[in-house]
# Entry
Amino acid sequence: MLNSDRVLGKGFRVLGHSIREQPRLFSIGVAGSVLFSVLIIAGAYIVGAIIGHVVVPAIDHRHVGVAALAGGAGVIFGVSAAKVLGLFGRRLGAGAMQFRLQATYRRRVTRRYLELPLAWHHRNATGTLLSNANADVEAAFYPIAPLPFAVGTVVMLFVAVASLFFTDWVLALVGVGVFLALLGMNIVYSRLISPRVSAAQRLRAEVSAVAHESFDGALVVKTMGREGDETQRFAAKAGELRDAMIRVGRIRGLFDPALDALPSFGTLTVLLVGAWRLRQGAITVADLVSVAFLFTVLAFPVRAIGWVLAELPRSAVGWERVQNVLTATGDMAYGEAELAADPKPATLRFENVDFAYAATVPGRGPSGTSEPAPSLGQPVLHGVTFEVPAGRTVALVGPTGSGKSTIASLAARLVDPTAGSVYLDGVDVSDLAHESLAATVALVPQVPFVFDDTVRGNITLDRPGVDDAGAWAALRVAQAESFVSALPQGLDTTVGERGTSLSGGQRQRLTLARALAGGPRLLILDDATSAVDPRVEAAILSSLRDGGAGASVLVVAYRRATIALADEVVYVEHGRVVAHGTHAELLATVPGYADLVTAYEKADAEREREKAYDEPPANSNNPSATNNKGIS
Amino acid sequence: MTTAVSQASTWSTLRRGLAMSPELRSGLAGTLVLAFFATAGRVAVPIAVQRGIDHGLLVQGGPDLGAIAGVVAVTALVLLVTMISAYLMNVRLYTVSETALAGIRTRTFRHIHDLSMLHQQSERRGSLVSRVTGDVDQMSQFLQWGGVILLVSLGQLTITTVVMATYSWQLTLVVYAAFAPVVFVIRHFQKRLTVAYGVVRAHVGTMLAAISESVVGAAVIRAYGVRRRTESRLDAAIEDNRRAQFTALRTSVTSFTAGEWASGLATAAVVVVGVLLGIGGHLTVGQLTAFLFLVTLFVQPVQIATEVLNEAQNAIAGWRRVLDVLDQAPDVADPGEAGLDLPPGPIDVRFSHVRFAYPGGPEVLSDVDLAIPAQIRVAVVGETGSGKTTFAKLLTRLMDPTSGQVLLSGVALTDVRFASLRRRVVMVPQDGFLFDASVADNVRFARPDISDEDLYLAFAELGLADWVDGLVEGLSTQVGERGEALSVGERQLVALARAYVADPDLLVLDEATSAVDPATEVRLQRTLDAVTRGRTTIAIAHRLSTAQAADEVLVVDRGRVVQRGPHDELVRDPESVYGRLYASWLEQTRAS
# Structure
């Protein structure tokens, strides 16, 4: 961890940066604050002057002029009115500045999320990215809220000290002493408190991470009856957070009253020293009262400096995390090349493609501040070469964990190969413009993703040329027409996070429709019908075939019927293409492939054999068999 | 959400919130005594100024340094006592409130797990997390900072009023007259602020959802080239949030300035009336000066209280949201001590006229009445939406039937203690959720005391030893967030192993191998057959290979069990629901 000096320095740089970015709002805030502060000092002197020049003579002579009295009251009220103006300027200026900076940086961070490649996303936990755009941005600009107040206070302190010197140099020295003590105490305070606040902040993130994970896995927790253990795990973290917060509280609890009392001690000193100076004839009663009053009114604004200082370390950490995103490298640059837009199927070719996912850092906490090094992990693909000729359907088959989904991602250029190349119509996909690539290829992922939007929005994604008629046509092919028309508002029904919940199969069909609606020239289905019943899948596949989408298709599949639709099969095992050819060829020559696709037949045969040995069947004398008729 | 906010009143929320946290009451009397001392000290300085001026400065023959020194020394002592009291009070408040908050967090966490909303509305999990994080944090600021300040401010107001009244009751009335309108102004703005903060919260929710979508949906956004669209949605959400924040701030500042207006008015009026009283011989210069100091002491707490009340709206809203969750009775309650244990030995299942419908929805299961003997393997099949997953959820008591009863080994499920139920009955859901830990730790979740050797053995018994051996670091391999470092099929393998080591008497598999390749699935099926012999297994299946291997098949169609019997028997009628499902399955999986 950085030491507190450097953190404080960093925090000041964040402030400087913020001021340069919003100079106008900062000026409004400071102007308001200075106006307010100057009026506080002026107010003290005005009260002193009114007491000295109006009150004392009036009470002494038992007479007062109406003009003097009304004038005094008017001035006091006028000062308050001007203070209100200052307040508006200070607080609205500061707030506007803070909110604007937050919004600006949220935009920048989220822009960056959209620019950075998927490989970068894989290296960073979702929770971390969410807090970068939200909590970290917020923390970075937290000290902005009291900043104009603090700057105004500093100005006020200078004015106050100057005015003190103008009144009496001895009292001025008392003032300087008190202000220096206040400043010193604030610095000590922020140094003591900042590591404690950071620790609490870290624990807060951990509490949140435990809750997130536990709620995500609620079904497992419940079915395993582990609610008690999970509660203990959570309670332990919540307890650590409690202790950390109490440690923060001890420091805050000590310094708050001390900082409050310091100006009061100043006032007492002024009283003592002032009496001595009064006796010497160096000052008047009015001077003394003014100075004493000044100390009282200054006590509160001086705290503003402390607020800024106390927030600086948190701000520096937040800023650093935000900068990590903004300066992250490894952009996946898109090229300029465009593919012909005429509606004919595309050719996809893999040439000697290697791929390794970036190594994930084990045990990376949710509060990880530094970006994990993008070192390469275990390779998952080795020299993959195959082709999907224009207009053909190729099935990608392989055992669980053999690299099929990775090949699908590479084909849509969600990730880039570590070696080798992927070509679309003979053009290296890394040379293609993003628009051209997206218009050509559509990927339907294994786990469907539904946007928090209407059904229409989810299907059209506001892509040019996709209208309602196109959306309905796509829904029809994806066998989603009937359930969508049964939704309360049809295409206008909101689905996703805050809308109607859809079943897994419905989500899959919706994402399938999204892919079809764009009229892609290459369709990639990554086991995209796994949550759909065989009969529904059969209907989808025959529609795809009969509808003639005019697309080449790469389909990751286990089902024989899906494979049967393919012109060619590419068989992968452990990240290598073991064989390709027609289904019949592979069945005859590749034992691994044959085992995989005939698994069910083999199981049938096995069962038949067992039954032959194991007569009568185990369940023939089953008592439940007699219950059959009772059920309907 | 905004409309729900205004339902419970502020006071009832506070009252119920305090009742919910008995920790907050511990040592309250002592804290209040300390608060009294901490506040009382604040009036020491104005009194010192008054006494200093009247008895030390404006005395015959010039300032009396000795008298002044005496006043200063006494006041310094009072200030010291004040500081120490304030410190002790703060420490007590922090300790008590943090303890209370940790308690609320933990109780809410547990309560959320007891509610069914987590697995029924998986999409709303994010907002539930904020119940135990952000919402509780909002209370903490109020309880520690706002609460104390409010307390101290009220104390300061009271004490200042008393001291002011001893100097001059007439001037005290003047001050109160000047501040009276402030109460009404603040009340008016409080209402507007509640609305404004409600709007802010709604916009924050929308913004967070948009950000989360852009992160979680990264792959789809890239694949479909819809960056611009996502950007404009994000920009709109971020901008709306900023605007709402500023509107709330403007309201809050306007309400805050009421105190300043009143202060100006009060000070001016005190000078005028004070001078007139002084001329009448009712007031000395020192007393009037002290009174002016006292007015600033009166203004401060009013302004701070305004600020705190504004903040309090946030805290109350957070409290209310937590209470809303705690108020929901678990729809599936653990009978606890009063409950029964499942009788030892294999478990048989009986559904007695079971019906189920989600609140306000159509019936998902209609009059299911059947018995499943112990130690057999049953497959439940049916089309998507036929009600087969509901069947599994009722069986494992994730939900209770709308009417009818589910009995395990003759005991009504609602009477079975959760501790017994969860040990003996285990379900493997389709989405084999994994925790961000190693493969071993994930399996160990079901049986914390299992050794590494036994863990490996479990995988070996399931025929998955070669899969484990192929992992980079074997059982110590980290699976990543939600298991995302593994493929979907691999996650299912780990989830299955987890259920296997739990060693249940009734195993419920809900499409537990849907993403696994056929060869692995068949192999698992066979090993599962071997290892599950002697217990009751109920498998929800959409691959009919499972049905073929089962002793018996239950066919569910539109919420009813329409067929039942061994596979071989059921396929004999090609026109039946099962016959058609099977024909389609064959078409899908066999050589054409």
